[in-house]
Amino acid sequence: MIDPFANNHQSMQIGELVIENQEDKIIIYGDINLLLNDIGYEQAKQLHELSSKILLAFENSSLYNNDEAKSKEKDDQSGKIIDNPFL
Prior knowledge:
The protein has about 90 residues and is α+β, with helices and mostly antiparallel strands. It is built from two helices and three strands. The chain has a three-stranded antiparallel β-sheet, covered by helices on one side.
């Protein structure tokens, strides 16, 4: 199980679903078929544990909880007001 947002080198797989960990994002791609059997149940438990850990990371993050602490350096907008060139 990955430690969400803790590093840039962890990954895991549940079925054909790939989860890559990074410090600023979690990348999830692929697909999964949750069949109504023992394997599907184990995969569903893994998905539940992973999503719980991701939500907990959000809740414990001061960056997410504090609007003023959000990084402006990763923001596309400079905060400057510019004239509209189309008017």
